[in-house]
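Hi D.,

Good news: the full-assembly prediction came through. Inputs first.
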Amino acid sequence: MLKDITLGQYFPGDTPIHRLDPRTKLLCLILFIVALFCAKWFVSYALVLALLLVAIVVSGVKLKALTKGLRTVYIIVAFTAVMNLFFTPGQAVSQLPVLNHITWEGVRTAAFMVARIVMLIMGSFLLTYTTSPIALTNALDRLLSPLKKLHFPVHELTLMMSLALRFIPTLIEETDKIMSAQKARGADFESGNILRRAKALVPILVPLFVGAFRRADELATAMESRCYHGGEGRTALHVLRYRPADYAALAAFVLLVAAVIVLRRFGL
Amino acid sequence: MEPIIRVDHLTHTYSAGTPFERSAVQDMSLDVMPGEFLGVIGHTGSGKSTLIQHLNGLLKPTAGHIYLNGQDIWAKPREIRQVRFRVGLVFQYPEYQLFEETARADIAFGPRNMGLGEEEIDRRVRDAAAFVGLEEALLDRSPFELSGGQKRRVAIAGVIAMEPEVLILDEPTAGLDPAGRELILRQIRAYHASRGTTVILVSHSMEEIARNVDRIAVLHRAGVYMTGTPAEVFARAEELERIGLDVPQVTKVALALRRRGVAVDGAVYTVEALERALLALKGGGEGC
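Then the structure:
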């Protein structure tokens, strides 16, 4: 069902990872990705993986939940692996037909690519699983705030983001409800050719859009009646503040990047 | 008499296997008799909405069975749509599901999905519109131009037009003004009386349930707490209040009178009944 969509899902909790400042987590993820793409050889990959595993264990997020997020990208992973397997020049694995296109270099590149994508996705999911969407957009707002000097509409951008994120679950729920209501009147979404299926979506999309516009209108009125007038001079309810744990986490990831870059020099 | 719908040890668990797992309905059993007007009451989270979505096969039981005329509705999962035509379900705020260009076309959506001929569809649309008191002129307007109460009636007509054996309405009066509420309820009563269809009315307003139904099923914490005629159920007013449900205001008055030593029947639930009871106490006088 639609409810199983894991995009941006947040599992509330109270672990050291949950308690980290969202800015820290966002920066750590960026550093993690940099390290991942600088990694060249097993030693570096092992380092990155080790830090990721520590983060996963501390966060208390179940491994099953993380691998569930991977389900959507299996095809991309498999495609990348196969491409690398066959199209990397080098020494052939075997002289047999078909297999003689596979090279040892290809096997290694494929393995590294898969490891890279899987870790990248697990790291990103770990962030969204342990950080509420509101905290994330708050963090983005603060991190991008220097751009305000260049007249970049940071506040408007993050407000739009948080509104969009806020309404994803609402829209999913609404879609579920409308689908049920139309099914109760015998609507059939599961059979027929593409054209019939596309036509079957009209009874869902029309009420969904009407509802979205109505809700946007109500939201605008509600915001205005609470004197919202843009980001000028607005203060935050939860003021973000770096704590010792944040500095420790940032230091760990900076070290990781440094280590990976140094190892790269030595071809490890 | 055989029940038209039998709910047999129904359990439904949402989001099984995630941290959000919860049972909305737990081992629930309930019989609905043909032609009866059943009220289902319970506060938010008591499992009302989950229960009724099982009756027409929108939700599949995690455990247990739903029988329609003695047949398990999930015996042939491919024919579940036929069950939905026989058990019509009007959702809460049904006006949010309107999508067609005219009210007429929207009411015709259900009958058209049944594969009926144009003439039959036209007859059913006009019948259904008449039942909910929509004038012919309104039918060719866009549903989005109608007032809130009219939209609601278009949506209800959309289900009635399928001429289901069982009509289920989930909070049909939510968000309407008192006049609109009474109008809708009167039309549902008239529909039940003239068609003899089984009607299930879900509500959390005790007054609404008390004045309309033959039998009440009280849901509490994902199970059936009690069933009985309104008189039987409201006789246990203290119990209802303990589980957080309200009783009609007149019942409260009657209970207060009893506590002060006036021997009125504690199960009184309409103003008229209380009036009769008080007049009887006065010794059959001519009224106030």
